[in-house]
Each structure stands twice: as structure tokens, then as C-alpha cells.
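Ticket #4471: structure output looks truncated?

Reporter: J.K.
Steps to reproduce: submitted the chain below (235 residues) through the standard prediction queue, then opened the result file.
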Amino acid sequence: MKSLTIGITDCSKYDNYRLWIQNADASINIVKLSHKLDNLDLAASCQAIILSGGEDVHPSIYGKPEYLDILDPLQMDIQRDYFELKVIEHAQQTNKPLLGICRGLQLANVYFGGTLIPDIPTVVGSELHNKIAGKDQLHSVEIVACSMVDSITKQSNGEINSAHHQSAKKIGEGLVATAFADYNIVEAIEWGNPAHKPWLLLVQWHPERITDSVPFSLAIRERFLEEAMKVADTH
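Returned output as attached by the reporter:
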């Protein structure tokens, strides 16, 4: 079996993602991709990439600068946005699997021309998604039948963790939402037609922080690493 190198974009909780992957196989090499390190070139050594969570996507990136009035400027990093958009572009151009988590879902959706709900409590009126006292909330999720996320989790519904105040609104070109929470908040996105496209799964929850769920954490990790190994085996 060939060794794997997985790229993970940098964030304040980077080690959660690194350990989640290396707990599956300690031999997997992890590359931290970060605008602070200016190391986009290292993406070329990776067989697959994880877009991690973190700051809000700057609304100017998706053509909604008016959202700045309701957002905290300290919770945005536009240089990170620009860097990670290039990471997504690299993954697409080189046919590498891409797993987007939380902010990763949001940024990837924006990359493909989608938009975001800037603040769920303000716009939608739901308080079920953001952290409370620094801890993830739990809520139910409904999975679209016959979707890829359905095939991975083998669940029509379930309970996932939640730590976000933004979510996908308009879905990006070529993509489709395949899991939903209350008020039709999007919880997963994938290709509408995956034929001849690199593997892509975007989830709004945090599988790297779920310790007791095979369907919504370990099954996702297993499929992601299987797809990464396919890339390794062709090189």
C-alpha cells in the first residue's frame, strides 16, 4: 500500500483534524496548508485535501459586502479566504478529493458561485446551530435519499454536532444540497452529477469532533481516505 499525504488547511483547531486522520492510520503524512506559511506549492504533494473550519468567509468574496454591517470583522480573515480558494482550485485542477468541514463547506460553496446566510439567528431565527458556552450543540439532520452522503452514512436521519452561525444559501454551480436541519439549513453538499469530477463532500457538522458516531464521523473519514488512496495508486 502506498503512503498517503493529506493536506489540511490551517485553523485554530488544526490538531483536531490532524489527529482525526492520523487516528485512522498513524503513517499518514499531514501537510498544514496555510496562508501564513505561504505554502500553496505543498498542495502538489497531497493526494487529498481537507478544508477546515474557523473564521467567517468575508462577504465581499461572494458579492455581499452589505453583510459586513452584521458581522464581526475580528471573525474574518480575507487572506485566508484567498489562499484557500486557490487550494480548492488546485484540488479541482488536479482531480484530488476534497472534504470541506463547516467553514470548508461554506468557502467551497462560494468557490462554485454560491452565497451564504451571514448569520442564522438574525436572518433565519434559529438558535440551534451556534455553540453555547463554547460547546457544540446537537441537533437532528435529514439526509436526501440516494445521495452520496446517504451512501456513506447509511442513515436517513440522525444527530450531529453544530458550531456555526453561517450556512449555505444559494448552492454553487454543479452542486446540490443533500442534508438539511431545521428551517432547511443546509448540512451537506455534493456534486449534482459526480461523473468525471473529482470526489467532493462538504459537511456543515464537525466529524473530527464526534467521538462516538460511525455514520457521521468514521464512515466519512473512511470514504475520504479510500478516495485519497485511489489517487495515490494512480501515481
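Triage note (M.O.): checked the attachment and the full C-alpha cell line is present. The chain has six helices and eleven strands.
Status: closed, working as intended.
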